[in-house]
Amino acid sequence: MPTLRWKDKEKYEHISDINHKAVSFQINEDFYDISLKTTSIDEDDIWKNMLIRGDNKMVMESLIKSSLEKVDLIYIDPPFATGGNFNYKIHIGEEGAKEVVESYSDKWKGGIDSYLNFLYERILLMKHLLSEKGSIFLHLDWHISHYVKIMLDEIFGEGNFRNEIIWVYPAASAQTRSFFIRSFDVILFYTKSDKYMFNDDPNIYMEYSDRVKNALKEDENGVFYYRGGSHNGKKLSQKVYVKQDGIFPRDFWHDIPYIRANTAEYQGFSTQKPERLLKRIILATTNKNDLVADFFCGSGTTLAVAEKLGRRWIGCDSTNHAIHMGRKRLLNINNSNDIFTWKKKYNQSLKPFKILSLEGIHDKGFLPDKFIEKGENIELKNIFETSKPKLSIEIHQNEQKIVIELKDYSLPFMDQISSKIREKIKIFSDWIDYWAIDFSYSQNVFNVNWTSFRTPKMRKIEMRSKEHSHLKSGKYLIAIMIIDILGINTIHEFEIKVD
Ligand SMILES: C[S@@+](CC[C@H](N)C(=O)[O-])C[C@H]1O[C@@H](n2cnc3c(N)ncnc32)[C@H](O)[C@@H]1O
After folding, report:
1. Which of 157, 183, 224, 455 is deepest in the core (most CB within 10 A)?
2. How far is the CA of 297 from the centre of ligand 1 (A)?
3. What is the pLDDT of residue 371?
4. Rounded-to-integer distance, Cα 439 and Cα 307, Å
């Protein structure tokens, strides 16, 4: 079989899957209390879905080392080697004034070779993590998909190639007049073996075109048909029986629109993919309770759809911005579209999940990705090491009952923040995007007991928490996590005494 060669490939070819130096995960935030309203189940006995912050290479090595059970479906939508930088908009205050901030870079210093090495190493790890019945979907486009297909043939075997799916969408804003407008993405579908899972589920079917839909009639047995067909080039007017749900999908998907800013699922993430795309993939290749993973999870589309379809999930992203979006998207899942009846709300509570990383939680907090990745504003990083944002609160305490109220939040390095952002801040709460409380903090894991946050559509945020009752008297450490609109994430501790 012909294979693809590129610079330095041999360095990665023989790397063993298990890196014995891989470090273990640490749980940073646990959303058990907030998801499960009951405490009757033993917490240690339940599976918790995982959102993991970190470079997916190290994350996958740690997953392999921890002998986690195998994954049934991997969908990834990695950077496409576009050579660009991706931006996102931050929304400010209740009116949601927008300001653009840079998120992640898709520039590759070593060109295509370095991109291929990056992906090659990671796909080898993904293969190791897949179960025997498992499938992998790689979402790419014209920049790189042709190289990656040859790479996947080598890794999984040509026989395990299933589809090259073309997801076509209208390219409304395309400017070019010098070549044809590029208007589709490529999704490569491979399986670990030939014992893979594939469900003929009517919920994955493609809708008929409007022409066919309008022509559908119902016969006396309630079965649908249209009149048509042909024989020897002659048009016939025979009854062609069809399933009402639509047709079994081909590999050319033209029935899934791109995300628009006015849709309920829009998170404000520039490369966000539609939930309907993941719905088809997840329903076709997994069953309820199977394990789905996305190691480039971005705004968390795969995780949200897996959650709604009753699959267990693991998500990973290297940027704090994406982890934060995923966190809020999942916490707000009851308000999102129901995956089967799109016009309804999902309206179900979230299953327990946790946020992990390869580092412990620390009160220095996290800096916005921009400041870490780009090496810009290094001074800001140094300042942050020694002085952190200031939070003032009021604790309303009535015997065992406690309510926390935020009174002020300020950044010590205001002069380093773009004046465009500063000018839009009217009151201190405009800085705050998310806050959470752990009413008895262990300084190890942040157990989320209560949260309030803004989304692109839901701009209001509470400044007063719900009442919390401590069951026993004693001293408690209350921790408040603040994530501001710049992505600065800090934990503030306060001691209280309950009589
Ligand atoms: C195209 S976006 C994914 C969008 C996602 N499918 C969605 O619907 O929102 C790619 C993501 O991969 C992340 N990423 C890039 N390199 C990574 C790495 N080495 N480890 C983990 N995540 C990475 C980026 O931070 C970005 O959020």
Report:
1. 455
2. 5
3. 44
4. 27
